[in-house]
Amino acid sequence: MKTQVAIIGAGPSGLLLGQLLHNAGIDNIIIERVTPDHVLSRIRAGLLEEGFVEMVKEAGVYDRMGKEGLVHDGFEIAFDGQIRRIDLKKYSGGKQVVVYGQTEITKDLMDARDASSAQTVYEVSDVEIHDPKTDSPYVTYTTKEGNHERIDCDYVAGCDGFHGVSRKTIPENMRTEHEKLYNVGWLGVLSDTPPISDELIYGTSDRGFFLCSMRSETRSRYYVDVTMEEKVEDWSDHRFWEELKSRLPESIRGNLVTGPSIEKSIAPLRSFITEPMQYGHLFLVGDAAHIVPPTGAKGLNLASSDVNYLYRIMLKVYKENKPEAIEQYSKLCLKRIWKSEHFSWWMTTMLHKLSDNTFELGVQKSELDYFTGTETGLRVIAENYVGLPYDEVE
Ligand code: RFL
Ligand code: PHB
C-alpha cells in the first residue's frame, strides 16, 4: 500500500489527525492494534478545552458534541470544610470548557471516517516503522488474517499511546525521557446517576482526594485516590460510595445519588515527557510522547494541540511545498506541553496528600487558600484550566 501519512493508532489523536488530513485532501491510512469496540470501551477523559472543540469543528465532526456537550463556566475546589468556585469565564477572558466523553468523541470520529473513503485497518500486530530518517519510510504489520503488509509513505504519525511502538522506534541515545511517579492512582466509577452538582468539584479531605465529574445530566463520573497496592476487585460499589461520601464536605454529602457502577477502574498517576518528539519523518503525537496526571484534565487536550501543530505543518508541506516546515514540530509542541505538565503536576501536588509531613500539609492548605481566594490566584488556575493558546505555525 502507498499513502502520504501512515498513522499508527486509532485513539482520539490518530482519528482526529486522520480526519483533518483527509478533509484537506492529504491521503492517510490508520492502523490500530485492537478492535473499534475495544477502543470505545476505554472510559477516560471528559473535559475539553476550547482549542480541542475548535479542532473538532474544523474536522467537521462537531454536530453531536454541539447538541450533547455540556458547556461549563466554572468548577469548584473543596478543602478544609469549605467550597470555593473558580469562575473560569470571568478569570480567563470569557473562555469555557465542554464536558463530553472521550468515548463519544472517538465514536463520532470513527463514524466520520467510516462515512469517508479513508482507510482504517483494525486488529493489526507486529507493527514496525522502518527508515524514519529517510524521505521514504515504511510501516510493516500483520493483519488479523495473518497476512504481512507494507505501507510506503512520506511521513509516519505515531499516535499509538504510551505503550505503543513509535516512541521506542527512536533510538535510546537520541531521546531523553523525563518521568515522575506519584505512587497513587485514581479509582474511577461511572454510574447512571445524576451528578451531585452542575459543575465539577475537585477536593481534598483527611481521607484523601476526590473528584465529582459527569458525562451528562444523568451520568456521573467520580474518582477517589488510592494507594498503588489497591486492586479494583476489592472495591465493591458500596465500599466506593462510602469512601467517596466520607471525603465529601458535609454541606453536599446529602446530595450524592448512588447507584450501580457501569465501569470501575484504577489509573496510576504519572508525569512523563520524551524529547524530542520527532525523529526524521516520524512524529510522536499525544500519549505516545507525554503523560500527565489527570488532575488538570490535560491529557486529551494536549493530544489535540499536538494534532493541531502536525496538521498545520502537513498543510505547509503539501499545500505550500515547504518540506522544511517539519523541523518546528517538536519545539512547538513541547513549549505548550511543559506548561500543561507543570499545571497538572501543580494541581496534583496541591490536591493530593502525597506526604505526612505536617510542614508540607500546612503549605498545601495555605497554597489552596491563596490560589482560590485571590484574583491573581484565580486567574492562574482559570487561564491554565481552560487551556493556553496554540502558537502559530510558520
Ligand atoms: P490513546 O487513547 O492511548 O490511543 C492510542 C491508540 O493506539 C493503539 N495502539 C497501537 N496501534 C497500532 N499498533 C500498535 N503497536 C499500537 N499500540 C497502541 C491503542 O490500541 C490505542 O487505540 O492515545 P491518544 O490517542 O494519544 O489519546 C490520549 C488520551 O487517551 C489521554 O491523554 C486521555 O484519556 C487522558 N485523560 C484525560 N485527558 C483530558 O484531556 N481530560 C480529562 O478529563 C482526562 N481524564 C484521562 C482522564 C486519562 C485517564 N486514564 C485512564 C489514563 C481520566 C483518566 C482516568
Ligand atoms: C473526567 O470526567 O473523567 C475528568 C474530568 C476532569 C479531570 C479528570 C477526569 O481533571
CATH topology of one domain: FAD/NAD(P)-binding domain
Number of alpha- plus pi-helical segments? 13
Indicate the mean pLDDT: 97
Bound molecules: 8-demethyl-8-dimethylamino-flavin-adenine-dinucleotide, P-hydroxybenzoic acid
Spatial order of the strands in the main sheet?
6-5-14-15-16-13-17-20
Annotated CATH homologous superfamily of one domain:
FAD/NAD(P)-binding domain
Low-pLDDT runs of 5+ residues are: none
- The CA-CA distance between the termini, in Å, is 31 Å
Helix content: 25-40%
Structure classification: alpha+beta
Instruction: State the oligomer.
Output: single chain
User: Beta-strand percentage?
Assistant: 25-35%
Number of DSSP E strands: 20
Task: Describe the secondary structure blueprint for this structure.
Layout: E1 5-8, H1 12-23, E2 28-31, H2 36-41, E3 47-48, H3 50-58, H4 63-68, E4 70-72, E5 74-79, E6 82-87, H5 88-91, E7 97-99, H6 102-115, E8 119-121, E9 125-130, E10 138-142, E11 148-152, E12 155-158, H7 166-169, E13 176-191, E14 201-205, E15 208-214, E16 220-227, H8 237-247, H9 250-253, E17 261-275, E18 278-279, E19 282-284, E20 290-291, H10 299-319, H11 329-351, H12 358-373, H13 375-386
Parallel strand pairs: 1-2, 1-12, 2-8, 5-14, 12-19
Antiparallel strand pairs: 3-7, 4-7, 5-6, 9-10, 10-11, 13-16, 13-17, 14-15, 15-16, 17-20, 18-19
The structure holds 8-demethyl-8-dimethylamino-flavin-adenine-dinucleotide and P-hydroxybenzoic acid.
The site of P-hydroxybenzoic acid has 9 residues, from loops.
